[in-house]
């Protein structure tokens, strides 16, 4: 949270460059902004007064940025105070904290580095900032960052942290150091484990007055020594000798953006003793400490890692009917990049899950990528005051509906066609949703397997299908005739569990119809209820009619 102000301006320029303002009347906009502002204030107070974090740092920052965007839309202003930590504490910093300007990509980093020398890269350690003051060889003061000019007196708590040196000598004996208190982690791989809410955990430890033992879990990374040695290598050596071991270990000279990118990727994917959220590039030589001002540190920039998740606004909600008749809900999102993938929709699941999550248009969802880059909902982080939820279609479809094409069956019928043509079923190369729509619109298929009767000439006469493609499709349809009997059983949607398929010995439709419930239950994965479903399914008039038609087409087993 305390780093949100620098992110705010960049996010406004980059993250929302193409975003549209909500289409709200002014009265509703004021209601929504006030409600979100109150929530952010509650989270902020809990974070900075009690050390409690109800939401992750990333969610807090992004919702604060969202609020600023709304204010810019409806008032023409974007006050930044909601993205800042609560400005508590009146202990002045001997040298102000400048903060770090964040750049969006390698190109921006390269532009900033152009013409400069003596640059170093460090991990952007994820924790809370602190000033350490040493006088005559002793640690006499520790100050939280606060607003960069003044913060809280953390001296008593910091003196209990074993990893923070309490005495110093040489150049460090009378020094002011700025650094990051962080949560010690053994082998933390940022790409796999994320931030672990490390910043909030450290803040909580520093706010609580009891449980001093938990301070053993904290480390210190010094990233600035105002008015210290001008030579960076000498500075790092003295810090290491003084007990600040991480600065020297994780600081490396760089000459170009490619080297920065290499360290960024290495630290993102390798085990580290702390959580980090990017890299920092800094000049070895800095301005004199008396010139340091919050927000004006032009000698240092940050390049953050790609976020593990993003807060995205729901722009619309749609419903689709699957091959088994189940209704699926899809949330359409404002398009955003997540790990180089453009995300603009996410599957919510069933109507029941959608109702439980209570997702409406305008709500804010935390979205991450699951296996194979598929977007998923981590949580609903914010709901609008005025609920806008469309009415789902009536639940009148099931596993035995829509084998024959009717206007009201369009979606389930199409879903069945897409399913049967997939690689694991009939493996009809080149057949997908678009093709099936085209064929059905042009030829008006009567039932699920009408395509078997198409001739090359009929396919070639369909607008958008060339003679060559029509011939190729006809060939694919004919190849489907040769698929094994059990593949055709799957294409029909017979509800046999996968575990039972390997034990199924029948090679004809008649044999399957002759099985009674008791015989079905002898197969693995088939209980009493599933056995009843199978008997009902196999004797349903629509299914029987399709089986008879497939027999007429000389499909094996029918």
TrEMBL record:
Q: Which reaction(s) does its UniProt entry say it catalyses?
A: NAD(+) + (deoxyribonucleotide)n-3'-hydroxyl + 5'-phospho-(deoxyribonucleotide)m = (deoxyribonucleotide)n+m + AMP + beta-nicotinamide D-nucleotide
Which branch of life, at top level? Bacteria
Q: What does this protein do?
A: Catalyzes the formation of phosphodiester linkages between 5'-phosphoryl and 3'-hydroxyl groups in double-stranded DNA using NAD as a coenzyme and as the energy source for the reaction.
DNA repair in keyword set: yes
- Fetch the InterPro entries from UniProt: DNA_ligase_AS (IPR018239), DNA_ligase_B (IPR020923), DNAligase_adenylation (IPR013839), DNAligase_N (IPR013840), NA-bd_OB-fold (IPR012340), NAD_dep_DNA_ligaseB (IPR050326), NAD_DNA_ligase_OB (IPR004150), RuvA_2-like (IPR010994)
Q: Which residues form the signal peptide?
A: 1-19
Keywords of this entry: DNA damage, DNA repair, DNA replication, Ligase, NAD, Signal
Pfam families documented for this protein: DNA_ligase_aden (PF01653), OB_DNA_ligase (PF03120)
This protein is called DNA ligase B
Which GO MF term does the entry hold, naming one?
A: DNA ligase (NAD+) activity
Q: Which organism is it from?
A: Klebsiella oxytoca
Gene3D superfamilies attached here?
DNA ligase/mRNA capping enzyme (3.30.470.30), Helix hairpin bin (1.10.287.610), Nucleic acid-binding proteins (2.40.50.140)
Q: NAD-dependent DNA ligase N-terminal domain spans which residues?
A: 28-425
One GO process term, biological-process aspect: DNA replication
List, from the UniProt record, the residues annotated as the active site of this protein: 124 (n6-amp-lysine intermediate)
Protein family (similarity comment): Belongs to the NAD-dependent DNA ligase family. LigB subfamily.
EC number(s) for this protein? 6.5.1.2
């Amino acid at each position: 949270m305390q780093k949100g102000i620098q992110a705010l301006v960049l996010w406004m320029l980059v993250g929302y460059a193409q975003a549209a303002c909500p289409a709200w009347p002014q009265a509703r906009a004021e209601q929504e902004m006030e409600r979100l502002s109150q929530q952010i204030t509650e989270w902020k107070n809990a974070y900075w007064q009690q050390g409690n974090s109800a939401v992750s740092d990333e969610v807090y920052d992004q919702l604060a940025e969202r609020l600023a965007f709304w204010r810019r839309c409806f008032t023409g202003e974007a006050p930044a105070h909601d993205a800042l930590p609560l400005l508590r504490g009146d202990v002045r910093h001997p040298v102000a904290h400048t903060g770090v300007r964040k750049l969006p990509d390698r190109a921006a980093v390269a532009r900033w580095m152009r013409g400069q020398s003596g640059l170093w890269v460090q991990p952007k350690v994820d924790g809370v900032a602190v000033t350490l003051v040493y006088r005559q060889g002793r640690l006499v003061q520790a100050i939280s960052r606060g607003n960069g000019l003044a913060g809280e007196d953390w001296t008593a708590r910091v003196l209990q942290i074993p990893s923070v040196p309490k005495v110093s000598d040489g150049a460090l004996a009378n020094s002011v150091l700025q650094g990051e208190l962080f949560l010690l982690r053994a082998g933390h791989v940022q790409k796999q484990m994320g931030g672990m809410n490390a910043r909030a955990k450290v803040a909580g430890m520093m706010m609580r007055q009891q449980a001093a033992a938990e301070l053993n879990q904290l480390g210190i990374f010094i990233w600035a020594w105002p008015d210290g040695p001008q030579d960076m290598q000498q500075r790092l050596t003295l810090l290491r000798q003084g007990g600040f071991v991480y600065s020297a270990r994780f600081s490396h000279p760089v000459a170009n953006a490619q080297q920065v990118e290499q360290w960024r990727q290495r630290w993102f994917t390798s085990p580290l003793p702390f959580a980090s959220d990017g890299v920092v590039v800094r000049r070895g030589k800095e301005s004199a400490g008396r010139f340091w001002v919050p927000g004006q540190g032009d000698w240092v920039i940050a390049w953050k890692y790609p976020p593990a998740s993003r807060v995205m606004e729901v722009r619309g909600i749609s419903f689709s009917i699957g091959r088994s008749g189940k209704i699926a809900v899809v949330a359409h999102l404002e398009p955003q990049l997540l790990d180089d993938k453009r995300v603009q929709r996410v599957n919510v699941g069933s109507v029941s899950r959608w109702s439980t999550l209570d997702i409406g248009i305008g709500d804010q969802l935390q979205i991450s990528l699951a296996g194979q880059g598929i977007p998923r909902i981590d949580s609903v982080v914010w709901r609008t005051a005025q609920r806008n939820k469309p009415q789902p279609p009536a639940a009148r479809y099931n596993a035995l509906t829509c084998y024959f094409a009717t206007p009201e069956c369009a979606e389930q019928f199409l879903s069945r066609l897409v399913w049967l043509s997939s690689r694991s079923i009939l493996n009809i190369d080149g057949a997908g949703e678009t093709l099936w729509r085209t064929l059905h619109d042009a030829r008006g298929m009567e039932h699920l397997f009408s395509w078997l009767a198409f001739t090359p000439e009929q396919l070639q006469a369909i607008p958008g299908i060339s003679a060559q493609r029509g011939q190729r499709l006809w060939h694919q349809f004919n190849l489907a005739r040769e698929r094994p009997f059990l593949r055709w059983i799957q294409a029909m949607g017979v509800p046999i569990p996968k575990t039972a398929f390997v034990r199924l010995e029948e090679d004809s439709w008649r044999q399957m119809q002759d099985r009674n419930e008791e015989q079905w239950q002898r197969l693995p994965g088939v209980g009493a209820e599933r056995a009843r479903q199978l008997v009902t399914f196999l004797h349903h008039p629509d299914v029987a009619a399709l089986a008879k038609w497939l027999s007429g087409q000389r499909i094996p087993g029918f």
